Amino acid sequence: MSQATDDIEVLSTALNWLKNGEQAVLVSVLKTWGSSPRPPGSLMVMNLSGKYAGSVSGGCVEQQLIERLQANQLVEAYPAFVNYGVDAQQANQLGLPCGGQLFLFIEQLTDALSIEKILTELRQGKLVARKVDTNTGTVNLLTGKVGKEIQQTESAVVKTFGPAWQLFIIGNGQIASQLARMALPLDYRVVICDPRDNYENHDPVEQVDYIKMIPDDAINQVGNLQRTAIVALAHDPRQDDLGLIAALESDAFYIGALGSRRSASNRLKRLATLGYSNDQLKRIHGPVGLDIGSKKPAEIALSILAHVTAVKNGIYSG
């Protein structure tokens, strides 16, 4: 299940409780240390009756939070920060893999309207940022930007909601299959676009969406999202160039193309003749991926996914 799907479940549950006059306490993971099954940005909502949705630890930390809420021992006032340390002995009792630490942000939800707006934006495939003043609890909704799921400043916590991350691959082959298999466990929705009528896919990857549309049409239909990475692997300029042209016109956070430095240089020259500026062409990572001396399909796929993930996490610029 993707982070976006998890968020929709949590917010929908909270909205239902609020509409029914029930309390809704939202817990957000800000930071983690040690082993943590749930990443920063993960959410959980709970109420006094002991019900909850979402997860902040993947173990029994959730139950302890509920018990503390019911005993009025969770926080003195909302919003609040809670440093939830788990040593090795506690980790064994809670069913966690090993000791770790969770830094949580806890708030009481009251504004059903803002939650409805977030859900509407999510279902329309848009990014929306929810900014909470950590002193007053005041909530403001902003236009979301690609970057970290959740960020803390001196006076606010900003959580970005949006569609699941998507990896759009042009060209089906060994590298594409390896890349898809690696990306799926990282919560990417994977689309492989290959319009060749005579190509037979004898080993399709489960959960991957295969489409036979022309790459530019396909990107305009399913790949024009801010949380999309577009990677051209076709080795065919007729496919790759069409896809890259559409990618440059899209909101994709990452654009890459397979090939040598010489082929990458020739590609940029072709695209420049179509009127694209140097600044626009700099969006294309080519040769695609981190330089790890990769030669085998799996190694090339690893280098690509590592670079895409680094850009997604703000380590490298897009």
At a glance:
With 318 residues, this protein is of the alpha/beta class.
Give short descriptive properties of this protein.
318 residues; five-stranded antiparallel sheet; alpha/beta; 24% strand; elongated; Rossmann fold; six-stranded parallel sheet
**What is the count of structural domains?**
2
Q: List how many beta strands DSSP finds.
A: 15
Mean pLDDT: 88
The side-by-side strand order for the widest beta sheet comes to 12-11-10-13-14-15
From N to C, what is the helix and strand string?
HEEEHEHEHEEEEEHEEHEHEHHEH
Distance between the termini: 26 Å
Describe the structure.
The protein has 318 residues and is α/β, with parallel strands linked by helices. It folds into 2 domains: 3-161, no CATH class; 166-312, Rossmann fold, CATH 3.40.50.720. It is 34% helix and 24% strand. The strands form 3 sheets. A 6-stranded parallel beta sheet has the order 12-11-10-13-14-15, with helices on both faces. β6 (128-133) and β7 (139-143) form a beta hairpin. α1 (3-19) runs antiparallel to α4, α5 packs across α10 (297-312) and α6 packs parallel to α7 (237-248). The protein is elongated, with a radius of gyration of 22 Å. The model has no long low-confidence stretch (mean pLDDT 88).
